[in-house]
Structure formats: C-alpha cells, structure tokens
Amino acid sequence: AQSVTQLGSHVSVSEGALVLLRCNYSSSVPPYLFWYVQYPNQGLQLLLKYTTGATLVKGINGFEAEFKKSETSFHLTKPSAHMSDAAEYFCAVSESDSWGKFQFGAGTQVVVTP
Amino acid sequence: EAQVTQNPRYLITVTGKKLTVTCSQNMNHEYMSWYRQDPGLGLRQIYYSMNVEVTDKGDVPEGYKVSRKEKRNFPLILESPSPNQTSLYFCASSFLGGSSYNEQFFGPGTRLTVL
User: How far is it, in rounded angstroms, from Cα A33 to Cα A4?
Assistant: First the structure.
C-alpha cells in the first residue's frame, strides 16, 4: 500500500530564502509522485510530477523536486521565495500498477515573511 | 475555458437529508475523482472513475455513492449525511494518456456542513 508523509505542517521562510518542503513516500512498486499547491479558497494546482526518466523534475513558478529512490523521498525546493509562494503544498503518490488511486500528504502551509 | 465545475459551492444541511454534489468537466477527460479535505489530514480519496460506468473505491468511501453515466459528469451522493461528513470536497479530472497523463485538474471545492 502506498502512503505519503510530509515533514512539517507549517514552514516559515523569508522572502528571497530557499524553500524546502520535505516529502517521503512508501510504495511497493515504482511510484508516480506529485506536488500540488493550494492557494486560499481555491482548488489544487499541479506544480510538477515525476513518472519515469529524469529524477530532477522542474515545475512551474521556479519549483523543482528530485526523486531519490534510495531515500524514498521527493522533496520540493525553490531557490528564492517570493511573497506569492505563500500557500499550502501537498505531496501525492500513485502507484504505477494501480493508476487511479492517489494518496496525499497532510500538507505543508508555507508563510513568506518580508 | 477548460474547467471543472462543482455545485453547490456551499451547503448547510441536516443529518439524514439526502444530497447530491455535482461535478462536471468540459475537457473530455476519462478519469474523474472525488476527495475530501480535512485539517491535518490532507486530501483523502473517496471514489474515482476511469471511464463511463467504471467506478472504484478510494480510501474513504463509506457513506458516499457515485455514478458515471456520462463522461463529463461525476456526481457525489450522500444518502444519509452525518456530521462527520462535514468537510471540503473536491472533484478532479484527468486524461488517461499522453503528456497530461496523471495531471489532475481540480474543481473549486464544495464546503459541506452537516448539522
């Protein structure tokens, strides 16, 4: 069975500083991994995804994530935080042999301070 | 405009009164799914559908029903709502192939309160 753990329910970063959001997963088969962002009072929007191929994945708004199989991790980073990055971020996993079922992490709320 | 729409956006009801939350997408997506979002728990999948007349349970299907009679619509039915179903509900849809494989598009959400 698949599962997702996001470390840290709240993260505060200064504008211009590195954003690092941690995600670890468990999966019995090769996983598909995703990061979504949710702005206040909105639905979720896909930031990036890993299915196969290159393990460093670049997404929208300057975010990227690296799939590390040995560490079962898919951490999200952005070199320089912007005020508009304040939102809730969700990591999600789907297993390659049971596409359709998704597990989401509990979410990380990002606050950006001037 | 490509979108997933949900109705109603807000609903307050009482225990036991049947309700339906509609979901419609105009992108010709094969896949549709329902989630509930609760503080500290993230999103939990209720049901999903790979195509018309094909549905399957997610992690929290108890107390919910779905149907997929048309490709564009995927209504969520609560036959006898209870207070523990008070939550924020999201519908999502996706293609099953091509470069958009797995990219789910989410609706704006339906906030349901069951008294």
Answer: 10
Q: Residues near A93 by Cβ (< 8 Å), separated by ≥ 6?
A: A2, A3, A4, A25, A27, A31, A32, A33, A34, A102, A103
- What residues of chain A lie within 8 A of the CB of B103, using their CB? 46, 49
- Interchain contact B92–A (C-beta under 8 A): yes
Any CB–CB contact under 8 A between B50 and chain A? yes
Mean pLDDT, chain B cut into blocks of 10 residues (115 residues total):
94 97 96 95 95 94 97 97 97 79 87 97
Cα distance between the two ends of chain B? 36
Of A6, A32, A43, the CB nearest to B108: A43
Give the Cα separation of A93 and A19 in Å (integer): 21
